[in-house]
Amino acid sequence: MSAPLGRRALTEAVGTAALVTVVVGSGIQATELTRDVGVQLLANSLATVFGLGVLIALLGPVSGAHFNPVVTLAAWFTGRRGKDGPTARDVAAYIPAQIAGAVVGAVAADAMFGKPLVQWSTHDRFAGHLWLGEVVATAGLILLIFGLACTDRAHLGPVAVASYIGAAYWFTSSTSFANPAVTIGRAFTDTFAGIAPHSLGPFIAAQLVGAALGLGLVLAVFGRPAPAQAGTVPLQREPERTAPTLP
């Protein structure tokens, strides 16, 4: 089933909002239940894995379930000469929707737990090893998503992508944000999952570098560019409207 661009953009906003609500809300809940940072991270990562998997399975058939500007940009870049990938118009609608959704998700999580609705995070994440963690996390995510598409296994996206993010929470120094929209949204909450505004620029730059590296790895590993329609789930395009044929 194809959907018009407005509906797909709304789906991206709703999906990204829900994802950030899961990330921030589970982080708040975890810190209120235990002071053990390891247990807090475990709870946060498990909730994110389950929530992300459900969101991809539910919303993927509508918008492709990108929920991530670097995924949208990578899909556009690889498909810019074809007809199946996102167009520049799609990108212009998806990315603002993802960012707006991420901010709404953070505010919603804070509201549910009685926190200030908008409070800039004071969680400093300004360090070179964290930026390297974001490069690695984002490169792996792009390699996975587009690699699945190259091998006609995009249907595994809900499980594979959620599992990768859950693992990357633990094996990367940055706990795997790997998403510029989510990164921006998490600056609006001064809680466990937050990131200080001054840390945003380097994190997002590292994610863009990681996305480019990931696409390079797709080419190196699979021997051809990723399909234009690659996304967490293949993008459902709106069919072209043609004029009715007169009798």
Describe the structure.
64% of the residues lie in helices and 0% in strands. It has helices at residues 5-33, 37-63, 69-79, 88-112, 128-150, 157-171, 180-185, 200-222. The chain is built from 8 helices and no strands. The chain starts with a helix and ends in a 25-residue tail after the last helix. With 247 residues, it is mainly alpha-helical.
Helices, strands, pairings?
Layout: H1 5-33, H2 37-63, H3 69-79, H4 88-112, H5 128-150, H6 157-171, H7 180-185, H8 200-222
Helix pairs in contact: 1-2, 1-4, 2-6, 3-4, 3-5, 5-6, 5-8
Q: Give the fraction of residues assigned to helices.
A: 55-70%
User: Would you count the extended β strands for me?
Assistant: 0
Query: Ranges with pLDDT <50 over ≥5 residues?
Result: 236-247
Average pLDDT confidence is 91
Count of helices?
8
* Category by helix and strand content: mainly alpha
Q: What would the principal axes of the Cα set say about the shape? A: globular
Indicate the radius of gyration in whole angstroms. Answer: 18 Å
Euclidean distance between termini CA atoms = 29 Å
Strand % is: under 5%
Q: In sequence order, what are the helices and strands, one letter per element?
A: HHHHHHHH
Largest sheet: none
Question: Which properties best describe this structure?
Answer:
247 residues, mainly alpha, 8 helices, 64% helix, 0% strand
